[in-house]
Amino acid sequence: MKREMDMLNGSLWDKILLFALPMALSGMLQQLFTAADAAVVGRFAGKAALAAVGSNTALVNLIINMFIGLTVGTSVLVARHVGSGERDKISKAVHTSITVAAVSGVLLVFIGCAASRFMLEWMATPSDVIDLATIYLRIYFCGMPFAMVYNFGVAILRSVGDTKRPLVILVIAGVVNVIFNLIFVIVFHMHVIGVGVATVISNILSAILVIYYLLKETGDIKLEPQKLSIDKPSLAGIMRIGIPAGLQNMVFSLSNVVIQTSINGFGSTVVSAGAAVVNFEFLAWFIISAFVSAATTFVSQNYGAQKLDRCKRAVRISLGWCIIFTIVFDVTCFILRYPLIGIFSTDAGVIEVGIVRMKYILMLNAIACIYEVLSGGMRGLGYSLSPAIFTVLGVCVLRLAWVYTVFPTTQTFESLLAVYPLSWIATNIMIVTAYFVVMKKVRRRQI
């Protein structure tokens, strides 16, 4: 059965949709691991336990996003070799990627476990939450080697257009995660420890399944354990694209950590509301991310095949679909805001604060589709540094400046949240300009 998608010929509208929708569902399901943690803890272990799980989100992203950014390099490199028909280089990129995944995952275990308490204190995590938050974070990091292998593995599958098997993996792992959550928390009363262990178990299962699929491959991306090693040209290619993307994600997460620190100052009710609503923000983000990945992968393959006009169409179509699906999801969530937030907490204060957050972030995040998709297109062309720099300036620097200048003069929750849409607009202006400059450079180089 052929699972690879022909990205170089035929219609793009349907193929981009077929690529992105399973990937969006996969990302949403992955986020539901965390959502299940929060829901079970919030309903059966109380508000403090919910805050302990939720207060870790920004911090976890800060640490792992540098390494996750490297998967962008893997996806672009493999896709480009596929487009140019360089079969030997495909194999070297695959085996280098899995080796990097395993090494970086082990490194994250030591970094995360050693620095957990210090980082939570730095974030001014509330005193009634910090002990539980530290326990959860250390358990979470123990699953990092498996999470990294999974993320690099699916990046390889997606580089050839296979987004269905990653979805299958996460359906299986997601069901297992929920089952163990319920058993550990309700039956054995393990609370925060239980949801952490359940997440690690699901990460292990995800890694096993993606490795199984790669071992059973019959095409160029087949994994052969005896070939696992670091190929220097492949590593350089991954790093050239992946490091700017990873640094962008890391600095982006740093700005969110600073904002989360300010949010922590409002107390556990506001922290709990954020822990509930952020799940829907992440679900919306995975819709955006899926179409960003579609733009990156389709552009990478077609650029490898020297089809620049098709690259430009892929970006436009990905952006159109991204905006449509994001708006539909955001509006649906807002219409169902009371029962959705109620999944995580029945506290009236938590629900009301959660609705305020929805208005400022969830309902406006379609603005971010523009700079995200165009950045994905530029990475597919090999320009990873430019979008990283402009996103850091527009999103991260502006947010940090806002938190330390505007917010102290108001000290209101609403003024803190307002920086999100403002930063998206500023970043759009810079990234749109950069995109057209890059396209002109690439066009001149091909003439």
Tell me what the structure shows.
The chain is 83% helix and 0% strand. By secondary structure, it is mostly helical. It has one domain (13-446).
Quick synopsis:
With 447 residues, this protein is mainly alpha-helical. The chain has helices at 13-44, 47-54, 57-84, 87-122, 130-142, 144-159, 164-187, 191-215, 232-264, 268-304, 308-335, 337-342, 348-360, 368-380, 385-405, 407-410, 413-417, 419-446.
Shape: globular
Instruction: Please mark out the parts with pLDDT under 50 across 5 or more consecutive residues, or reply none.
Output: none
How many beta-strand elements? Answer: 0
Query: What share of residues are in beta strands?
Result: under 5%
The secondary-structure class comes to: mainly alpha
Number of helices: 18
Helix content: over 70%
**Residue-averaged pLDDT, rounded?**
87
The profile of the biggest β sheet is: none
State the domain count: 1
Order of helices and strands: HHHHHHHHHHHHHHHHHH
Backbone CA Rg: 21 Å
Q: Report, as a whole number of angstroms, the end-to-end distance.
A: 39 Å
